Structures are given as C-alpha cells and as structure tokens.
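Regression report. Comparing outputs from two consecutive submissions.

Submission 1:
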Amino acid sequence: MTWTLVSNILLPTFTWPHRVLGSVALASSIPPAPQRAHQTIRRLVGFLPSYLPRLSRRYCTWVGIEFKNQIVQLPFGIVLKWSDGTRLEEVSAMMIARSAGVPDLGLAHKHLNEKELQTISNEMHAMQIAMQSWPHPWGGERICSVMGTSIRSAPVPNHSIGPCESESKFNDYLPSVASEYHSPSRDVFEQRLACVRKLHSVHHPIVFTHGDLKHHNSMVHNGHASGSINWESAGCERALTSLTVDSYAW
C-alpha cells in the first residue's frame, strides 16, 4: 500500500489536487501583484533550475517517456518551463490568476466529445469575461504587464513591446517594425499595412488578457477547464488582442 502510494507520486501521470472553476468565486477586480523576492535571493535560487534538466533526463529514461527541453518533466507532478520567454512577469501573472479564482493546472485530455468541448469553451469564456472586466490597475490606457513593465509579444523584434502610455503610442510602434518578409510582394505588404492602420483608427478598451490563450496553453480535467499555462504575454492590452488571439482558439 505504502509502496503503491509512493510509486504513484513518482509517475508522470500524477497530479496534485487542484481547484476547479466555481469552487472559488472569480475576482471582480485584479488582485495585487505579489511582492518579488530580493534580487540576491532570486539569483541564489536561480542556480537550481540549471541542474533540473539533467535530473529530468534521468527521470524520463527511468519512467520511459520522452525528454523535452522546454517543458521539463520532474517527479512529484512537477514540470519546469525552460525557455527564453520565461520571466518574472509570467510568475506574477500566474499568481494573480490563482488569487483571482482561475483554476490550477490539471491533467490534459486530448480526446474530448462535443459536450465536453462546449463546457470547456463556456468556462474559458467566463474566465475571459471576468478578467476583461477588472479595472485597470495602472489607470488610463497604459499597455503593460501585470508589473507595469513591457508586454511580451512574439511578432515584434526582441519579443518585447512597451510599456506604452496609450493605445495610440502602441499602435504607432507596431507599423514601425513591420516587415514585408512574409508578403509575396510589396503591393500586398502595403495592402496589409493599410488594413492594420484602419484597425488602429478604431479605439479599443484596454483590458487584462492572457495574451495567448490557445488550445496548447489550456489544460482540461474530467471535461472541465482546469487551468492555463504560458502567461508570459499576460497583461493590460487592447481588447482586440483578446478577441483575435484568446477568443479565436475557443
């Protein structure tokens, strides 16, 4: 009995008990950003993750699963995200989401029936609506992360933009870094750029958004939404981003 319990904890299928949507009321306003540990402490603790991929390689070999160098599988139901997109703002965003009542991570299931997909879609939509209704913690139209710093965005140079004090400043920046590399011709590029400028002429509310709420970043358990991962793009952004990126997936 004891050995069975211990062996189950060591298996990659083990998950810790987690909160489901509705067990805690979704917050009506954005919870305060958690206080960061002192820089010295962060640097000392920062040495530990560099050794964990080595442990993960041995662990994956032992349990017979594939080792992945970005989502590092560890014993006791722990995974380590290892990429250039990982930053303190993502940690803060995840902690805020948990404080706000967003479910924790659970076991993902790839095979879902239509009823389960509809249920999960409704639950993800409810979480989006709740987050978008939060009053702006920084006031005005500031576009920034939960810590007031830059927003991570894959399409822009260095994957970082802002913080921008207004939507217009944000919109001015985007065309300035646009490239015709992926356009078949200069004319097509100019047409696309004109379409972007037309979208930018419309004012959009600044809301809190996950920023990349697609299927591969959403977790489900027993036919219900159980959490979201990859919060590096989360922050106060245009509602247009939430509509075109987050809502598109569901």
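Submission 2:
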Amino acid sequence: MSTTSTPVAADALPPDSTDLAAIGRPPAYFLPLLAAGAVLLNWLVVGFLLTPDHLLLGAVLPAVAIMGIARFPGASLALLALLVPASYALGVGAGVGLLIAISVVLFGAAAYGSRATLWISGVGLVAAPIALFALVVLRTFGLESIDSFLRNFSLSQLPGALSRLLGGLSIVGLTLGALFILLPWLLGLAWRSVIRSRQEAALAQAERDEAERETAYAREVADLRAGQTQLARDVHDVVGHSLAVILAQAQSAQYLRDDELDKMRETMATVADSARRSLGDVRAVLTGTRDQASAASAGLETLISGVRAAGNEVVERVDGTPRPLSPELAEVAYRVLQEMLTNALKHGREGGPVWVRQIWPEQPGGRLTIEVHNLIDADREAQGAGIGLGSMRDRLASVGGSLRTGAEETADGPMFGAVAVLPLRATEVSGGMPVVPRVAG
C-alpha cells in the first residue's frame, strides 16, 4: 500500500550516483530557521517566558523536535509524545511553538520516517482524539458523575449527557486539531509518495548510466581485442607470405650449379627484396601507419611475381572483365590471395604448378571469385585448418564473402583447392582504386 511505502535505501544506489537520502529533504538551513521562527512566534503570542517550564516545554524542546525531524524523525516523534502530556500536566498548555512543532513532526514522520515511524504516527492520530475525548468527558462530568451515570444508566439520560458533552467541545479547538495535526500528516504522506517516485527515478537513471558505462567498457574491450586480432592477422599474412617465398627461394638455390652465379645472385636478390618488403610491412603494421589500401595498392601482380621468382610455375586465368574495387574489398582480395599463395608454397608439392583463377561477374553487383589450386603429396594432410584459413574466412565474412577449401584426386595426384567469393555491391565500387590485375601467363 502507498501509505506504508518506505523510501528506497540509499545503499541500493551506486557510490558515484545521486544520494537518495537527500532527495526531498529540506535544505540544511531551513529547519533551524523554522525552529527559531516557532520560538519567536511563541514569544510574540504568549509574551516573555517567565518560568523554566515555559522556556523548556514551550520553546527549547519544540525547537529540538523540529530540527531533528529530517534526520531523526522517530526520535522527534518520541520527544513530541512526551512533550505534549508533560506540557498539559505542568500547566504550560499548547502554545504556538508547541503547535508548530506538532505539525512539523507529524509531517516529517509521515514523509521521512521509517515504516514503523509512519505506523506509530498514524496510530497516534487515532489514539490522540480518543484520549482527548476522554479528557473532555472527565472535565465535563467529573469522575464521580461518570461513575453515577454508568451505575444508573438509562436511555432517557443520554440526550442530556450528549448535550452537555457537545457544549464542552470547542469548534475552534476541533478546527485547530484538524489544521495542526491531521492535515500535516496527510501532506507528509503525499510528500512521501513524491520522494519515493523521485528516488525510483534517480535509481533507474543511475542503473541506466551504469549500464551505459559497462556497455562502453565492453565495446572498448571488444574493439581492443578486435584490433589485436587484426594485428595478429596482418603480421601473420605479411610474415607468413614472405617466409614462404624466402623458403622457396632458399630451397631452389640448393639445386643451382656452382657455375650459375647469375641465378644465385638473382635468387639472393629476391630473398633480400622479400625480407626487406616484409620488414617494412611489419614495421608499418606495428606502428599503425599503414593505410588500409596500402597493401592492395601494390597489386596482386607483386604477389604472383614473387611466387614465380621463387621458381614456382603459376598458371593464371581471368574470366570476365576486372573492374575497380573499393578500398575494403581491394584489401580483402589482396590479403586472401596472399594467404592462398602462402599455403600453396608451404603445403604444395615442391616444384609443382599453382593455378590462379579470377572470375569477374558480367553485371555490377555480382560476385568476384578467386580460386587457387595446387598439387600436394599423397602423404601430406590437406591444409584444412590453421590461423591462415581462419583469417581468410574472417576477412571474407566481414564483407559478406565466403571461403571453401578441400582436396580432390586428379590424374596428376591429390590437389588442394581454395575458393574465395567476394560480393561486389555497387555502393562499394570506387573508380580511383587499383584493379585486380591480369597477369600474363
């Protein structure tokens, strides 16, 4: 029920968020000013406080109850429960200061108090009129008259008794009671609901802010990991291809005769060029200065020429008309073909040919297919797994492409094939970018 709702606990909110306990509370200076105003108003109405009882019960204790209502509503309510009967018992009565304290404490108990404080103040609102009614009855009839009335009770005496009782009640007193007691408590109850709504809104906002921070952090971590993965792929592609070319060159140099110095120099020059280019690419990758299309700008001809220079036969076929590619597609096409040729050199039959085929679509928006096939030894496993193939699949998937690999038996022996498919969307074609070249066989 709304009448028993408890404000949200402050420890339910993250440490760096809005303090829930401060929501709906009066400023720090407000309650002392209100207490001072109650004392001043009581002095203006009642006059000088001549006795210690008037000073303590009519000014000091009501001011203390008022100042403690925001932080200690239960204690203020308990003080008020002792203060009211003590004032009547000592003949001080309900001065203006005490009436203001009653209103403020009941408002604070309903607005800021715990559930127990709220219930106690509500019960007190019911019990106080009953006690007041009993006092009026005692004052009107006296204890002996009441005892005599109950002993000799008859219905004919009831109208007269009610008439005397109502005559003893003051309309002004009832109005003041409703004004200073019931109305403040109801207003406090309404303000409690407002505080509850504001606290829930602040808590929800804090949770949204925390969720946004966690999402941003997770995105940063994901971006970091994606960057690390991309860096690993680029280094693998650059180093793997260069080492494969260098290895092929070194193996071919073993079979050169002693009088073939020119071929030996050519082979060593190719090795040095491959190593130099690989070192430059790795440095650019690690320093982050390499443009996305810088590798593709070298052209696929450089890749195939390096494989040829290593002593491998390359048979290339181009179907359709090559066209310019966007930077993203040019980068993917270059890296994928680079990895395909690397695998062919690493896992293919030594001295065997490498078949490279490009299939360009006749209409814009089709698919570019790049195929690389190479013979493998019968006792060698087909390269169906590894970082390189995984890297190719991820690169192709990033642009909506796909990769198929597999081995088949041919008349010349087992042959491994890799087929990459790249979608050519019209919005990704840029006339200023390098085109996948046709290399003369």
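Expected: both submissions complete independently.
Actual: both completed, but the second showed a warning that disappeared on reload.
Relevant detail on submission 2: Residues 253 and 264 are 6 Å apart (CA to CA).
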